[in-house]
Design goal:
Distance between the termini: 45 Å
Strand order of the largest sheet: 7-6-8-9-10-11
Number of helices: 16
Radius of gyration: 24 Å
Number of strands: 13
Structural class: alpha/beta
Helix content: 25-40%
Largest sheet: 6 strands, parallel
Shape: globular
Oligomer: single chain
Strand content: 5-15%
Length: 494
């Protein structure tokens, strides 16, 4: 029997060592809320790596799935004779769950996975999600162990089987079951739901003291703050991160069912057991934090309550693009400069929280991603587009839509050369605002124990990759980070 989850002690400054990193796999059936939970973990400080697959119409808030795990899981399931979606004949699915620990990926594939993990996951705590992992967890556990990872903190996400069936049928993705009668389809999907959670509970996940959460509880305005606080407490997240995660939850998400009960008794019994465990864990958490107040609200933090600021700094932040964080320090230098003049200016990532005249960072992301398509509709006419991209004919950002945006609003740029190039294509830059030193950034700890010869952080293309490989070949100690920000990146710099 699983024990109620205890706190997760975090290891300080693992940075380079897999044995010191914490891995958070999110496990559960399709359409069970795994995307919701993974995004919450992301806000709470769990690195999800890059690239993530793009949002889609049936999941507009994002899947939060790393391409590495998704692609490998699909390939393996296809080779084992079932739908790459993770559906199919019950007996075959059960066989996959039983045999996955014996899958041998071979040295070449293992080397590829090792490279992608070491370059893409550099934070003290990182995680991943793909529902198919529920069937293939024994294989991934063996891979992780062979690569030196030792600390696993699983999160199991559960949703009523009947609601899962309803969502899958609504989406229309039946994994080759399209010719099945409606009643048979319902029973078959419920049995697949059962196979997924039986596979999880029969694996060594149950020995890792997993956190169990129910989607129904996360979408309940009264319970959501407690559930998010529970996840945040386990990860050592601060109050601001917990508040941001609570604020992100949309309780109007389509999570209701038509009232039909689960038809498979064994599936209903399994759900009841998992839901009871989730409630037990929550009750113990509340008892241990009896002095805390869990506000049943979707808006915990209000910026500059009761007044409108003259300015704000707006970072355009697509849900599936963690690279928007690369301008956080630019935003802080602007905020610090305003502070030098006695002005308090907020930094926001939600366009609806813009106050006064916004200085827009990452304006090139507007109209580029599904969830930022209409971001400029929330901007006042006084908005300032602060371009921080190189201007050239080969730039992927110099689209017709972006140039029209720069022409329509006031524009700043960091580069005198860019100003001349933009003028040639009809964009008038109001002001050059170069990036410079600010006291607020003087915070990287001094470390005299230098164990890195060359540190590269940023996106890696073919040219940069070749240079990095050449440096490694000389024997230099080279560290590459493609998605690391804040304190963890500063520790690398130190």
């Amino acid at each position: 029997m699983l024990k109620p989850n205890a706190a997760w002690p975090l290891t300080a400054d693992p940075i380079l060592s897999p044995s010191a990193q914490i891995v958070v796999p999110v496990l559960g059936m399709h359409r069970s809320g795994t995307s919701l939970v993974t995004r919450l973990l992301d806000i709470l400080g769990v690195e999800l790596g890059w690239p993530l697959i793009a949002p889609y119409s049936d999941n507009p808030k994002g899947f939060w799935e790393h391409e590495l795990f998704l692609n490998f899981n699909r390939q393996i399931l296809g080779r084992m004779g079932v739908s790459t979606a993770g559906y199919g004949e019950i007996e075959k699915l059960e066989g996959i769950a039983n045999k996955s620990k014996d899958i041998d990926l071979g040295p070449d594939v293992m080397h590829l996975i090792e490279q992608k993990l070491s370059r893409g996951f550099m934070s003290p705590v990182w995680g991943f999600k793909d529902p198919r992992t529920s069937l293939l967890w024994p294989m991934w556990y063996k891979v992780f162990r062979d690569l030196g990872y030792r600390d696993f903190r699983p999160v199991i996400v559960v949703r009523q089987p009947s609601a899962v069936v309803q969502s899958i049928v609504k989406r229309g993705d039946f994994g080759g079951l399209n010719n099945t009668s409606p009643d048979q389809l319902v029973m078959h999907i419920e049995r697949i739901w059962q196979v997924y959670y039986q596979a999880i509970m029969k694996s060594n996940v149950r020995e890792m003291n997993p956190v169990v959460v129910c989607q129904e509880h996360l979408l309940d305005p009264e319970l959501a703050p407690i559930e998010v606080s529970r996840l945040g407490s386990l990860l050592g997240a601060g109050e601001a991160e917990i508040a941001a995660a609570i604020d992100w939850i949309d309780v109007t998400m389509d999570h209701r069912t038509n009232g039909r009960k689960t038809v498979t008794p064994s599936a209903a019994k399994l759900y009841d057991g998992l839901a009871s465990l989730a409630v037990n864990q929550r009750d113990k958490f509340v008892a241990a934090h009896s002095g805390s107040v869990f506000e049943p609200t979707s808006k915990v933090i209000e910026l500059n309550r009761g007044r409108t600021a003259e300015w704000s700094i707006y970072i355009v932040s697509p849900l599936n693009n963690p690279f928007s964080r690369c301008l956080n320090e630019v935003a802080e230098t602007l905020q610090s400069a305003f502070g030098d003049y006695g002005l308090s200016v907020p930094i926001v990532t939600d366009p609806k929280k813009i106050e006064g005249t916004p200085i827009v960072l990452h304006p090139n992301y507007i109209n580029r991603y599904l969830d930022t398509m209409a971001a400029d509709l929330d901007l006042p006419d006084t908005a300032i587009m602060y371009n921080l991209e190189q201007i050239g004919s080969d730039s992927p950002w110099m689209t017709k839509g972006y140039l029209e945006l720069l022409k329509r609003y006031r524009t700043w740029d960091y580069s005198e050369q860019n100003v001349l190039r933009l003028a040639d294509i009809g964009v008038q830059v109001e002001r050059v605002c170069p990036i410079g030193y600010a006291r607020v950034l003087d915070r990287i700890p001094e470390n005299h124990d230098k164990d890195i010869d060359v540190l590269f952080y940023g996106g890696i293309g073919e040219r940069r990759g070749a240079i990095i490989d050449a440096l490694i070949a000389t024997g230099l100690r080279v560290v590459v980070s493609t998605n690391l920000y804040g304190e963890s990146r500063d520790n690398l710099l130190s």
